[in-house]
Amino acid sequence: MAEVARKVITWEDYLQGEPKGLECYEIEDGEVIVVGAPSGEHQWVIKVLLRVLDDFVTSRQLGVVIQAPFDVVVQRDPVRTRQPDLLFLRKERGGTPEQIRQLKRLEIPPDIVIEVVLASEEETERLEHKLRDYHRIGVPEVWLVYPEERAVEVLVWAEDGWRWHGLFFSKDKIRSTILGETDFAVGRIFE
Q1: Residue 108: per-residue pLDDT
Q2: Which of 57, 58, 167, 170 is buried most deeply by CB count within 10 Å?
């Protein structure tokens, strides 16, 4: 995603609804970074993954899956937010439809963050920043989805950084420390 504009805001500005009229943005130390629209491939993968993952967690009443744009607050001062492509929040931690509908932003770490990764130097650098923020707030698990390789990599939080949990390809089912083994093969995500 290409950066197109920057603006600096405070936590108070943010609570008043800044940035107005924007969907694809993140805030890094008060600086609003507006990013270009994602590619069709990126959006298609998110659409399919949202459908299969939501079916999985809903049928088991595990919690909710939410897609971007939805802010996850990393810190208040200076303001820092992320908008993961998808996130999962367990029912026990407020992940019910009723509770989520009342939120304007998420101020606790999601149980799982999912990012679709397309190869580019800029995207790799942004992903490194996001992973640092997700680790800092204590997100237990991150899924990195690679459309070009048709694979999903699962990382798990550890004190000293991310620990590799697994790399899952087309016929594999994703094994998660949070959800257990999914009932869908990775290949379904890329149909």
Answers
A1: 95
A2: 57
